[in-house]
């Protein structure tokens, strides 16, 4: 299957003679050392990854780690210094200006932190904007926009102007606008960072729902680990422009690649993220095999009730094969560990 997005050895270096660094020993310098020596700043450093069709791929890192630069490189809003990017099999790196325009209009939509809504247009016309740019007749685009307005829960606000809406609702308009053109892929650049925690949670749930309903490929940028763990099928962690780790939420929490990631995940409630894969063990001699069966992908917290209710250990299943067992004590070990300072 063709990857929805394939990025290979991507670099972005800002500054004088930035194209003369890659392939020289200077490329191996830390960001700070390269800056001191040459005046260049590494935005994205030799990044390679693939995103599968329909996947939610989260890019996470602290401020300055290169997230915004990376997401802008994907559609060449910023020109790469080197490397290749391919979107649904189309080589973005060698695409002409006309091809790029087409990709940005029809294949990929972006949702930004600062909404980017047109203040003098009503909600319905903000949502329809991308369709208007594509030359779709007014009646048709309004009909499509009305459908999407309903989809994101903005019924009744079609004729409102952006400044009459709360931040969360404005971001729903941003989402609707991104969805109106029926793109293959959505790129989210920290879309919920400016929202209050409760609204933010609603919007995260909204993204999960829309993903379930529409199945679009999503690349989601955030500096918030909890958001990354909640939304991501996989998470890529960046530091100083380079990849530190790529993994599923449970992999990142159970096996952090280094102290940087370990520090990030130290506060995460493990029982909410780890799956039975990480806590199961071999059955002990004589142990009853009459316990309930649960898939190996079950989140530990969701297995707790079954473990407490059963005298025999839970049988952990990978398809039809039993791959281990888990009892109440194994689960309590994970849960109690987090309550200890
Ligand atoms: N146009 C530019 N010129 C020079 N340096 C830049 C430019 N854009 C970004 N940088 C530098 O590249 C690095 C990565 O920045 P980027 O904005 O991608 O990080 P980020 O992870 O998105 O951070 P934030 O969450 O604060 O936006 C930073 O050191 C930044 O200063």
TrEMBL record:
Family, similarity comment: Belongs to the ABC transporter superfamily.
UniProt xrefs under PROSITE patterns: ABC_TRANSPORTER_1 (PS00211), ABC_TRANSPORTER_2 (PS50893)
Entries under NCBIfam families matching the protein: proV
Family matches, as SUPFAM superfamilies: P-loop containing nucleoside triphosphate hydrolases
Signal peptide, first to last residue: none
Keyword Transport included in the entry's annotation: yes
Organism from which the protein derives: Nocardioides alpinus
Top-rank taxon, per record: Bacteria
Gene3D superfamilies with a match to the protein in the record: P-loop containing nucleotide triphosphate hydrolases
Record-level Gene Ontology MF annotations: ATP binding; ATP hydrolysis activity
Record keyword Aminoacyl-tRNA synthetase present: no
GO cellular-component term (any): membrane
Identification of the protein by name: Glycine betaine/proline transport system ATP-binding protein
UniProtKB keywords: ATP-binding, CBS domain, Nucleotide-binding, Transport
């Amino acid at each position: 299957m063709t990857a929805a997005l394939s990025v290979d050895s991507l670099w972005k270096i800002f500054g004088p003679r930035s194209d003369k660094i890659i392939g020289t020993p200077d490329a191996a310098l830390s960001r700070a050392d390269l800056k001191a020596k040459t005046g260049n700043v590494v935005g994205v450093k030799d990044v390679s990854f693939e995103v599968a069709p329909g996947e939610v791929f989260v890019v996470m890192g602290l401020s300055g780690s290169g997230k915004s630069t990376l997401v802008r490189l994907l559609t060449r809003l910023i020109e790469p210094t080197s490397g290749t990017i391919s979107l649904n099999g189309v080589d973005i790196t060698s695409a002409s200006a006309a091809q790029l325009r087409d990709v940005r209009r029809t294949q990929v939509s972006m949702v930004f932190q600062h909404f980017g809504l047109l203040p003098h247009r009503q909600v319905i016309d903000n949502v329809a904007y991308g369709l208007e740019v594509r030359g779709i007749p007014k009646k048709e685009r309004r009909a499509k926009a009305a459908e999407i307005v309903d989809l994101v829960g903005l019924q009744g606000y079609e004729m409102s102007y952006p400044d009459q809406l709360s931040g969360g609702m404005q971001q729903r308009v941003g989402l609707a606008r991104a969805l109106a053109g029926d793109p293959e892929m959505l790129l989210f650049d920290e879309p919920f960072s400016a929202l209050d925690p409760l609204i933010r949670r609603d919007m995260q749930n909204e993204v999960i729902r829309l993903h379930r309903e529409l199945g679009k490929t999503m690349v989601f940028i955030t500096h918030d680990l909890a958001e990354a763990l909640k939304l991501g099928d996989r998470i890529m962690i960046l530091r100083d422009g380079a990849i530190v780790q790529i993994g599923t939420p449970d992999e990142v929490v159970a096996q952090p690649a280094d102290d940087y990631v370990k520090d990030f995940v130290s506060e995460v409630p493990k029982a909410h993220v780890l799956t039975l894969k990480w806590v199961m063990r071999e059955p002990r001699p004589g142990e009853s095999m009459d316990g309930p069966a649960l898939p190996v992908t079950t989140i530990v917290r969701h297995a707790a009730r079954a473990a407490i209710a059963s005298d025999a250990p839970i049988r952990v299943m990978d398809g039809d094969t039993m791959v281990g067992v888990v009892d109440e004590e194994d689960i309590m070990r994970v849960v109690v560990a987090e309550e200890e300072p």
